[in-house]
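Many introductory courses stop at the sequence. We go one step further.
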Amino acid sequence: MKNNRHRTTHRPPRSGWLLATCCALASLGAQAAGHFDVDDAGTLDPGQCQYETWWGRTGTEPVTGFHLGPACRVGPVELGLNLDRLSVGGVHSVTGGPQIKWNFFGQAADAPFSAALSVSTVSDLRRGGRMGGQFVVPLTWRPAASLQVHGNIGTDWALGTGVRTPRGGLAVEWAIDDAVSLIAERNRAAGLWTSRIGGRFSLTPLISVDISASRVRPTGGRAVTGFTVGLNHEFTWK
């Protein structure tokens, strides 16, 4: 999941495009797709848990973000927790909140089409009393065994202000073999378009590493590039 989570606590960033970049990087909340912006419609299998963690950096100042997201399948839904730390120019923010995801159509792993609902909230853990959130409908189409197309449509509630902005995106995931998948996506959130390309590399059937490069172009500003590295680990809890 992703939420607009950044708020400066001491001084504002030096330019509007950097603030927009902060929002874009901070919106990398926990999701089944790892650190990629477009979520898939899948959930964990019954009795399974996972944690996802990643570190990202973008811009010239630069903006850095760290995420930790544990989740477990409980009954028909996947319950998760998002914890994020964003840093730019010596200013830090720490945010977190719960997430719930329900796959209501096409639950089989090889289903040609599947759909889910995902809802999350986020709060400023340093200041308190400030809350945002997100509602997303992830969709996945599998035209072939090695190819998946993911689509997202939803809404973000900005942290603190409650201002609503639409989000949506499209991603293509191609599994070269059991160990390597390539992912390309185009996503819009918080008024920003982000293009991202990268790969997922499975170290074991339950542990994988994600690497990607991104490009964000704020309205009327210069394009900003970044990169993210993530680790995903799934395990049985009962």
